[in-house]
């Protein structure tokens, strides 16, 4: 693949990621009108029979989870890069993630019904502030790790310059000093900080939260395989999501090693 083609491909995938992220923000924040060309918002009124809607939604979430986790595994990348050039592997992951997330947002079947609804304008504004803080946390955390590497731009830029790819070193900058997964904290805020929570939103929030807790197991297994004892020690000493709160498993592991 020519270095120009790789760079343009990487930039195009990144631009698509920007568009799909804004679309997802509008979907989860209820800024999309019901039944628009871009689908409905997550809390829009029901369109059909709720069991069928739930089945479609479950399929969509499973499709996203499988794509997002399988394509991130080292064994998959080793096989995949026999088919596609290594410098664009991450951009291709971003592209497939955009397609998967786009399908979730576009085809999501709202089922209406109110689980909770906050009516006080001040409280609604506060919950919306938390919602946007979630998105901000996602973006900020990506910069603390390395935004351009996470989204494939660093890889195509190095290739364009004729330089070899170097893996990111283990680091605990900013919020990573206090918790291991700030980016996932951001996602959890965007799922749950909702002034109106309908049944399909609750289904989405429960499904995606469960997915995060499962994905973390695989991610940390890979991080320990890659960074060795440094990550294992970090895992023992630093809480997963809530600062200054240790999980029972990290306490037990620490006790075993002490
Ligand atoms: C999508 S990011 C999410 C990072 C983290 N789970 C979070 O919620 O903030 C996943 C990638 O970040 C990188 N990563 C996570 N923690 C790291 C650390 N402490 N140092 C270096 N890279 C890290 C790994 O390459 C991992 O595949």
Please tell me what the overall shape is.
globular
Going by helix content, strand content and strand pairing, the class is: mainly alpha
How far apart are the first and last residues' alpha carbons, in Å? Answer: 51 Å
The number of distinct helices, counting runs of at least 4 residues, comes to 11
Strand fraction? under 5%
Quantity of strands, as a count: 2
**Can you summarize the main beta sheet?**
2 strands, antiparallel
> How many independent structural domains?
1
The strands making up the biggest β-sheet line up spatially as 1-2
Small molecules bound = S-adenosylmethionine
- The residue fraction in helices comes out at 55-70%
Mean pLDDT: 93
Question: What is the string of SSEs from the N terminus onward?
Answer: HHHHEHHHHEHHH
Could you tell me the radius of gyration in angstroms?
20 Å
Walk me through the structure.
The chain is an all-alpha fold and 258 residues long. The protein has one domain (3-257). It is 66% helix and 3% strand. The protein is built from 11 helices and 2 strands; from the N terminus they run H-H-H-H-E-H-H-H-H-E-H-H-H. The protein has helices at residues 3-28, 50-70, 74-80, 89-107, 121-145, 147-150, 153-160, 182-192, 199-227, 229-237, 248-257; strands spanning 114-117, 196-198. It has a two-stranded antiparallel sheet. The longest helix has 29 residues, at 199-227. It is globular, with a radius of gyration of 20 Å. Residues 250-258 have low confidence and may be disordered. The structure holds S-adenosylmethionine. S-adenosylmethionine (SAM) binds at residues 141, 145, 150, 168, 170-172, 176, 181-184, 219. S-adenosylmethionine is lined by residues 141, 145, 150, 168, 170-172, 176, 181-184, 219. It catalyses: methanethiol + S-adenosyl-L-methionine = dimethyl sulfide + S-adenosyl-L-homocysteine + H(+). This is methanethiol S-methyltransferase.
């Amino acid at each position: 693949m020519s270095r120009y083609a790789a760079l343009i491909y990487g930039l195009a995938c990144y631009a698509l990621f920007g568009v799909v992220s804004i679309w997802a923000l509008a979907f989860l924040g209820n800024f999309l009108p019901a039944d628009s060309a871009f689908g409905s918002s997550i809390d829009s009124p029901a369109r059909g029979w709720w069991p069928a809607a739930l089945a479609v939604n479950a399929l969509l979430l499973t499709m996203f989870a499988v794509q997002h986790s399988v394509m991130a595994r080292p064994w998959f990348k080793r096989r995949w890069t026999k088919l596609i050039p290594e410098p664009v592997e991450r951009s291709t992951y971003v592209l497939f993630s955009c397609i998967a997330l786009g399908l979730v947002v576009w085809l999501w079947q709202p089922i209406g019904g109110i689980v909770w609804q906050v009516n006080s304008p001040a409280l609604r504004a506060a919950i919306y502030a938390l919602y946007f803080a979630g998105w901000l946390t996602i973006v900020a955390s990506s910069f603390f790790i390395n935004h351009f590497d996470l989204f494939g731009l660093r890889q195509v830029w190095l290739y364009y310059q004729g330089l070899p790819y170097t893996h990111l070193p283990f680091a605990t900058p900013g919020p990573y000093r206090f918790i291991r997964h700030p980016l996932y904290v951001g996602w959890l805020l965007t799922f749950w900080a909702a002034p109106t929570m309908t049944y399909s939103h609750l289904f989405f929030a429960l499904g995606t939260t469960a997915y995060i807790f499962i994905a973390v197991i695989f991610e940390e297994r890979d991080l320990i395989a890659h960074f060795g004892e440094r990550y294992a020690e970090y895992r023992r000493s630093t809480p997963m999501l809530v600062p200054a709160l240790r999980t029972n498993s990290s306490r037990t592991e620490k006790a075993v090693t002490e």
